[in-house]
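Forgive a beginner's question, but would it be possible to get any protein sequence you like and the tokens describing how it folds?
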Amino acid sequence: MIWRESLKNVPGRSTLIETMHDHPYATAFVEIDGVRLHYVERGSGEPLVLLHGNGSMIQDFESSGLLDMAAAKYRVIAFDRPGYGHTTRPRDRVWSAEAQADLIEEALRELGASPAVVLGHSWGASVAMALALRHPASVKALVPTSGYYYPTPRVDAVAASGPAIPILGDILRYTVAPLLGRVLWPALMRKIFGPAKEPAKFTNGFPKELALRPSQLRASAAESALMVPDAWAASDSYGALQMPVVIVAGARDRLIDTAKQSARLHKVIGHSSFHAVAGAGHMVHQTATRAVMAAIDEAAAAKARSPELAAAE
């Protein structure tokens, strides 16, 4: 079931997301397998799906300018992934990248938006890769951006997973974690944007308080805990992808090692192209928006490998 609804009626709505009302009828929900999936749709033409990263939401793409830039040419659908923004995250299942990919695939069929060009940023790139591997007919082209694709030791991911621990995590999320999140926010921004500075468009357009809600902290912690296991489970399968793949990453990403992740993925997917954006960090779509837009156009214009060529390789 699909319906449109004013965010004024959504429980937990934040006054910091008024920008969503600048585009009438742009925000909507689709019910998929017990999940109230929130999305924004703009533009017309070939479907383009945007999947945000860990701790983020639709307003990341909104504030970056990428959503409106792409809407001039594509039918853009940006989802709040489970537990983020205004999408629910039922606790009766593990929301791995594969589980989220299955959810997005069903939503695309419900919206009549399959196959689509799919861009995923950071943890969203893991979902985009899982979608392409599990449901290749739903993905015309793939634009994984600033992704984590291969398992490596990540002490930071273990430390960030605390709020996902049953009972103890619930206590942390409603007491210490939101306060700690506010204290650590400036340092986190320096890390994810560096070496560039946090742009004013993000500072003014991204709802920090919404990101620090207990419910969203739980989703973020759970994805931190799943980061390495999900990469380990998927990493042997990437070479099977046949659709066009355009990989994007900041050349100076301080959160994820571009050489060990994106560059390695490019070598494994022989027909892919790879753009390491000079001077950019993890939030490359915010600081080099036009470069990411160019990658989307490149992926949309590319042709998939023929079965004969794949077999010959």
Remarks:
- The longest helix spans residues 214-234.
- Residues 190 and 197 are 7 Å apart (CA to CA).
